[in-house]
Specification:
Elements (H helix, E strand, L loop, with lengths): L11 H4 L11 E4 L3 H12 L4 E4 L5 H16 L12 E3 L12 E4 L5 H12 L7 E4 L6 H4 L9 E6 L8 E6 L5 H13 L3 E5 L8 H17 L5 H9 L2 H5 L4 H8 L4 H9 L2 H8 L7 H15 L4 H22 L4
Parallel strand pairs: 1-2, 1-4, 2-3, 4-5, 5-6, 7-8
Antiparallel strand pairs: 6-7
Helix pairs in contact: 2-3, 10-11
């Protein structure tokens, strides 16, 4: 894959119509499943008008899903606008409100489906409107291929649940204009998110690659009988998981070196890592392993329905976010 080269916009005259990233323009949320409903609630919580479009879902179901998450936000201490933005449903992309200033696309994880939606969008929206895809693992370069205005297409990947977790990974494609990336970063900051620009396109971006590495080893340890699913969760939530909410791997090991920092850590303990890396598992997710995972997860958590666990997770995340607002130094 060749390195990404900044691509100047092919329509500089039309670019002047792009609103400021902190404007009160309508936001189009395209695809209103778990991720899209969370995005819709968040944008509304921050005071932006939101238009929902998802031909595969009933309007009332979309409204209810967004309203449930929005109600959670409005009752929380998570900063938002004094008045929530209106949430409306359009039957199709041909019925959008005027002045849509940003698109958050959350369609099914299919390259063909996303490309088809972008072709339809390009026939409706002005060329300056930034389009961000919530894709988990597809690349912006592939999504924007075939677009008439690929310079405004990028990845804006949230972490689930998007109405609570601040992270958004912003990834440019080979044809994405740097001005569009900068605008998207400013927009996400303006609506209270924590955008991180990923410097190179890779499958799964950054956060999901890290979590996939951990999940792979968790599968290996479970399959080998080293620990049960419940025990693996306990190890993380009562140990490194607590620290990870405050500091990532590099600060962790920098502090692990004591007064000498990361250099001292690498000098004294760095050589212990290759031995562990060499012993990490490469499990097969075959039928037998899948059955083992399902059996153990249900044994640990099957006594309560998933929505109850989801509600408890969200309440715990709200409490953790409140603590982080107190503990994190201002930037």
């Amino acid at each position: 894959m060749p390195p990404r080269r900044p691509r100047p916009c092919a329509c500089q005259g039309a670019m002047t119509g792009r609103p400021g990233p902190d404007g009160a323009f309508p936001v189009l949320v395209l695809g209103v499943g778990t991720i899209g409903s969370g995005w819709g609630a968040w944008f509304s919580h921050r005071g932006l008008p939101v238009c929902l479009v998802d031909p595969g879902r009933e309007p009332a179901a979309m409204q209810d899903a967004v309203a449930a998450r929005l109600g959670q936000l409005r009752q929380s201490d998570i900063p938002g606008a004094e008045a929530a933005g209106d949430v409306t449903v359009a039957k199709s992309l041909r019925a959008l409100p005027e002045g849509v200033g940003f698109v958050q696309e959350n369609a099914t994880e299919s390259l063909d489906a996303k490309q088809a939606l972008l072709r339809e969008l390009e026939a409706i929206l002005p060329p300056w409107t930034v389009i961000a895809s919530s894709t988990t693992s597809l690349k912006a370069s592939d999504i924007q291929a075939g677009c008439r205005h690929p310079e405004r297409v990028l990845v804006g990947h949230p972490f689930n649940p998007p109405h609570l977790l601040p992270l958004v990974e912003v990834v440019a494609g080979h044809q994405t204009d740097d001005a569009a990336v900068g605008w998207a970063m400013d927009f996400y900051r303006a609506v209270g998110k924590f955008p991180v620009r990923v410097r190179k396109e890779v499958t799964g971006h950054v956060a999901n690659r890290l979590t996939s590495a951990l999940f792979r080893e968790a599968v290996h340890l479970l399959a080998e009988g080293v620990a049960t699913a419940a025990e693996l969760d306990d190890v993380l939530t009562h140990g490194p998981g607590l620290r990870w909410a405050l500091q990532g791997p590099w600060l962790t090991y920098h502090l692990g070196g004591g007064a000498g920092g990361i250099a001292a850590y690498l000098e004294h303990l760095g050589d212990t890592h290759p031995a562990r890396w060499a012993d990490l598992g490469e499990p097969e997710l075959n039928d037998g392993v899948r059955r083992m995972i399902v059996e153990q997860v249900l044994a640990a958590y099957g006594s309560r329905p998933v929505p109850e666990w989801t509600g408890e997770r969200d309440r715990q995340l709200e409490a953790l976010l409140a603590l982080k607002r107190i503990a994190d130094p201002p930037t």
